[in-house]
Amino acid sequence: MTRRAVRSALVLPLVLLAILIRVGAASGEITVQIGTVEAAPGAIVALPVTLHTNGEPISGFQTDLLFEPQVTPLGRGEQRADCSQNPALLPGELGLQSTLFEYDCASDGECIRATARLSSATFPSGPVVVYSCAVQVAHDAVPATYAVGCSNLGTSTQEGEPLPASCLDGAIVVAGEPVEVTPSVPPTPTPPATSEGTPVIEIANLSGHPGDRVTAEFRLRSNGASVSGVQADVAFPSAARIAARANGKPECVFGTDPNFAGYSGVAFLPPGCTADVCTAMRALLITSETVPISDGTLVMSCTVEIAADAATGVYAFVLSHLEASSPTGVAVPLDANPGTITVTDSAPSEPTDEAGQPATPTATPAAEPSANEGQQPVTGAAGAEMSSGCAVDPGHRSFGSSGFLLAITLFALRRRRK
Fold it and tell me: What is the pTM for the complete model shown?
């Protein structure tokens, strides 16, 4: 695999993660621990990265993993490292972005920069494995302990404030006889032959009765364009409002593929509004590894509450402040198809039995509520089950029309040069 040197380090989205570089930390602070694993020469192993929060409200962190020449981090492409997030950790909240590159490391080996971010929660207290990265030991490596350095640590709360933290090195302990292992290389998808047009964010048409709760589906029609992130403001009529959760956040969930968790969010507008005062919602949807969104992808679903006193008729959402970005951070034009909400006054007919009498309803057991209110697991590029969900990052509440492009550009994979 050919890799080119990177002069500038990967910069985190300014609205999502504040970077703190710290050498050493006092006892009781947040700790990021690189794992220590044993492997035979030639073997491929998963190297875990564990977070100890010590009760601190951390919601994101970045770290560089530095490898000695005898250990090679594997990739899923020229830039993406083969790292997978813990599927059991806060489904629907965690997004992981990992980049594989060479730069002036503390050693002569290669490096991974990984950023893990939660959409709207904090990491659980106590030690938890957040992600693991695949590495391969050289076939001719002699039995020894090879250090995996940890550097350039940065942490953040949901509000973007850094927290004191320390990072502990790990190691690959090489022992045993050499083994022959060939890394699996995922096939490169072939994009369909199509002329590039303007992508469209669309909302499917809805219908319901006064008092109903219906689901609005948001899909991206890429029209051949390469898009990895979109932003839109969605204004809704008072007769058909986007519903709010008990915590006041929009009742939305992300689509299942690709993973949007961690770096995406939704928030009601105007900023700080509550209940019936809100008139719109801002959605910022970024794929966690800046991969193109396939045509027709369901990017988000939101619950819409039709008012009990809503008059019959046809209502519509209004989409504005439309922005999109390619995986390399280039602005892409974006159009919208807002769809309609049709409110009818005809109630569903009452079920009857064979004699024409009202039928006795059959009780249906209620489904067990999930821990993340309808968020569904998805499968990552390496086959590991991941999760995708929709939650609000307070940092998204007030960024202006250019905020999205700044964030996605900084978050995109860095331009590489020899």
Answer: 0.59
